[in-house]
Each structure stands twice: as C-alpha cells, then as structure tokens.
Design brief:
This protein is α/β, with parallel strands linked by helices. The chain has two domains: about 110 residues, Response regulator (Rossmann fold, 3-Layer(aba) Sandwich), CATH 3.40.50; about 180 residues, Hypothetical protein af1432 (Orthogonal Bundle). The chain contains 14 helices and five strands. The N and C termini lie far apart (about 60 Å). Bound molecules: fe (ii) ion.
Length: about 350
C-alpha cells in the first residue's frame, strides 16, 4: 500500500496491479503526488481479493502477471456485479494490436503502452472517472424507477408483476414498429411506471370491492396526471412522462385526461394502452375473471380503431402469438437488466381488487 499521508482521506483510491517492482514504485509515487490514494499488488489473484476488500475507484492493470494474467482479472471483474462498472486501464509493455483488442474484449476501458507519459495516464484516468460518474447517475435514475415501480406494486398487491409483464410486452411492440435505443427504453419504462400516479390515490378506492361510483371514477381518473407530476423532477423520466400522462387516452378521443385522438396521442402511450388492456383481459383482475387467449384477441380486435390504434393492434397480437409460442422477438429488445427490476417481497393478495 502506498503512503496515504499525501492523499486526502476521500481522494479516489487507485489499485495498481503490476508485477514489475520498478513500474509499481513509479506508478505509486506518481499517483500519490497527484493526490490519489493507492494500493499496489503484484499478482492477479491477490489483486482480485484486494479489489473486493477495498473497492477502489479505478484499476491500473498489467497484462502479464503471475497466477492470473490481466485478461483474466479483467474478465472476472466484469463478471462480478460489484465491479462491472469499475474503470480498468490496461498498462502493458506489449503494444500489439492483438493485445489491445483482447484487453478491450476482456472489458478494459482503456489501454496504455509502456513507456507511458504521465500526462497521458492522468488524462485517461480523468476520462475513466467521468465515464464512471455518468454510469453512476444512470444507475441512480434506474434505482429511482425501480423504487417507484415497487411502491406502486406494494400499494396494489394484486397487480404484482403487472408492470414488468407490460414493460416486456410494450417493448416488443415498440421494437416491432421500429423504435430503438432511448425511445424503446422510454416505452419500457413508461409501461413499467404507467400507474405510478396510483400512489397518490386513497387506498380504500384502490381496494374497493364491487362497482365504482361516479365520484370514485373521477378520483381514479386523476392517476395519469398525478403520475406525470410525480416524475416531473426526474430529468431522465422526460422521455416517458407523456406515456404515463396519456396511457388512458383512446384512439377515438373519448379517453382521459386530455381527450386526445388518433396520432395526437404519443406513440408510446398508444402502445402501453394496448399492452395494459391485454394484461387486464388475459390475466384477469380480482373484479373480472381472466379470459382465454382467443377472447382476449377478440376484445382487442373489437376495440381496434375505437379504443386502440388500428395500425398497432395486429402487430401486437402477432407479437403476443410469438410470446405464447415461446418464440423470441424478431427484433432487438432493451437490455434484460431494464426489465429485471427488483420487486417487493410481499405475498400476493387475492383479496385486493385493483383497477388498471
Ligand atoms: Fe392506468
């Protein structure tokens, strides 16, 4: 371990993995003078243990080391969820293109050859830290979305898993109609959180048995607006807030809250409306029995052009046929992690009606 006296206690911690004592000493000295805290280790296996124990902010990794070489260290760091985003800069005497490609394939973020310029190493480290800060912000936003999804499902236990099922189905439809990247992810998030506004509704209403009064309906119909309001401060939610606000609009203009019709309804909201109805009909709700697949298809077809976008219904049903047949989507889907959010660990309640 380097001399910590030069570094502030909260300075970034850098782990140097290099079996050459001369290079190790040089790096430790250089990094400490620059204000970093440093741990130096001479072999890969010990390096992994030290990283697990001290959780450094960045790793500088030599490729040829005893016991476990740099490629394997890198692969293992990427396979571990705790270190999957840990910045790794490979530093090696082998300047071959093959080594560089193999390092990047193993999961390294950057590659520097010895002898190296101090100024270049620091610039690459700063770039790696910037990248990690951006990834952390995305992870934070993802965690907020997961927490909100859990909050809705905690309030409506009978709908457990509904958001995730919808996210998956809506993403498949979105992908089929050509959405990609951020737009596709926005639909998945919008589907996952479409009913987040129900957090703001009285519990008695959400769990009410029997038919709703007109007053009940008026209150229930506020959930899309409340949902959009809840997400307004979250900058990363801007892409899918319109989906949450408009998921109860109808193609014929008779929906709420804004009575939008046709193409004026955001595409993501038209997609989520179909996926939401499909789940309510096919999976059933405590206040309505589940229907067969055929009946579900019939009902969606009947509402095509009235409640739902008529261009989307056949594509959705075709995609659901693939789902029911256990076939993968014919197009690329968002990362699995997006659709694999943690859920509340409470038992499902069959006594709590919930209205979608
Ligand atoms: Fe809803």
């Amino acid at each position: 371990m380097g001399d910590a006296a030069l570094a502030a206690p909260h300075a970034p911690l850098v782990c140097v993995l290099d079996d050459d004592p001369q290079v190790q000493r040089l790096l430790v000295r250089m990094l400490e003078v620059e204000g970093y805290r440093v741990i130096a280790v001479a072999d890969g296996e010990l390096g992994l243990r030290v990283i697990a124990e001290h959780q450094p902010d960045l790793v500088i990794l030599d490729l040829s080391m005893p016991r476990l070489d740099g490629f394997e260290v890198c692969r293992r760091l990427r396979a571990d969820p705790h270190t999957v985003t840990l910045p790794v800069i490979v530093l090696t005497a082998h300047a071959s293109v093959d080594d560089m490609v193999a390092s990047l394939d193993a999961g390294a973020d950057d590659f520097i050859t010895k002898p190296f310029q101090q100024i270049e190493l620091f610039a690459r480290m700063r770039s790696a830290f910037r990248m990690r800060a951006a990834v952390r912000r995305m992870e934070d936003a993802h965690a907020i979305v997961a927490a909100l999804a859990n909050a809705v499902e905690a309030k409506e236990l009978s709908l457990r898993g509904h958001g995730q099922r919808m996210a998956h189905r809506a993403a498949r439809l979105a992908a089929r109609v050509g959405l990609r990247g951020a737009e596709l992810e926005g639909v998945a998030y919008g589907a996952l959180l479409h009913d987040v506004g129900k957090i703001g509704l009285p519990e008695e209403l959400l769990h009410k048995m029997g038919p709703l009064t007109e007053d009940d309906r008026t209150v229930l119909r506020r959930h899309p607006e409340i949902g959009a309001m809840i997400l307004r401060p979250l900058r990363s939610a801007q892409a899918f807030t319109p989906i949450i606000r408009h998921h109860h609009e109808r193609w014929d203009g008779a929906g709420y809250p804004d009575g939008l019709a046709g193409d004026a309804i955001p595409l993501g909201a038209r997609i989520v409306a179909i996926a939401d109805a499909y789940d309510a009909i096919f999976a059933g709700r405590p206040y309505r029995p589940a229907r067969t697949l055929e009946e579900t298809y019939d009902e969606l077809n009947r509402e095509s052009g009235c409640q739902f976008d008529p261009a989307l219904v056949p594509i959705f049903l075709d995609e659901m046929e693939r789902v029911e047949a256990g076939l993968p989507s014919s197009v690329e889907l968002p990362p699995a992690a997006l659709l694999d959010l943690d859920h509340v660990g409470q038992p499902e309640s069959s006594a709590s009606p919930a209205r979608s």
